[in-house]
Write a structure and sequence with these properties.
Number of strands: 14
Number of helices: 0
Order of helices and strands: EEEEEEEEEEEEEE
Shape: flat
Helix content: under 10%
Oligomer: single chain
Strand content: over 45%
Length: 221
């Protein structure tokens, strides 16, 4: 059934307490059938600690005479952890083990933008800014019978930059003073044929002057 924990209560003018908010809310349904030997279950949990942390996900269990499944989240609906409840930074992942396959993955997504207020006034004002980005993760899908790795991938993206927005009487814009970026992705798939592909990039610029590197490769096994 339903479970509420860390409840916040409110009191009306008559002194009656009512539930205002549950910091942790969950729901679970489990079924055991001793006739055909099946056990099915699904539970969900969600935190309501906005604006500190927002998190949630589901767990599924299915056991029969011939098959089994245990899953913490799925690719489509992974377990999620959202710090400050602003979609960034965000961490998510899933783990699904069954008698047919193993499907798991995780990723982290951080994107921080900081800027000051306008400095100056009239026909000469500026607004310094800074950005930091970090994205990384992996996925894999393995089948047991016959054993094969259907898909596996890993990726990484990093970026840091500083600049200044300006607003003068005759011109306004955004000037990037310095920036650096690095990233890449490696992926393997076996259907319809085994292929390894990868990309990599890098860039360094100061006041628009610098260099860029891009590389890609693909190998059929």
């Amino acid at each position: 059934g339903k479970v509420d924990a860390a409840n916040l209560m409110s009191k009306d003018k008559d002194g009656n307490l009512t539930l205002k908010k549950s910091l942790i809310a969950g729901d679970g349904r489990f079924t055991l059938n001793t006739v055909d030997g099946t056990f099915l279950g699904r539970s969900t949990v969600k935190t309501n600690t906005d604006p500190l942390v927002c998190a949630g996900g589901a767990m599924d269990i299915a056991i029969t005479k011939d098959n089994f499944l245990f899953a913490l989240g799925t690719r489509e609906q992974p377990l999620q952890l959202d710090i400050l409840c602003r979609n960034k930074p965000q961490m998510a992942g899933w783990f699904a083990l069954s008698s047919q396959s193993l499907d798991m993955g995780a990723f982290i997504d951080i994107d921080i933008n900081l800027e000051t207020g306008w400095i100056g006034g009239g026909c000469a004002k500026v607004k310094p800014w800074m950005r930091f980005l970090f994205k990384s993760g992996f996925t894999t899908l393995v089948y047991w019978d016959p054993f094969r790795i259907a898909e596996a991938s890993i990726w990484l993206d990093m970026y840091a930059g500083v600049g200044v927005k300006y607003d003068f009487c005759l011109k306004s814009g955004n000037l990037t003073i310095a920036e650096v970026g690095l990233g890449g992705k490696l992926k393997y798939v076996s259907d319809p044929k085994s292929v390894i592909s990868g990309t990599m990039y890098g860039k360094v610029r100061v006041l628009g002057v610098g260099f860029d590197v891009d590389f890609s490769a693909k190998v059929e096994l």
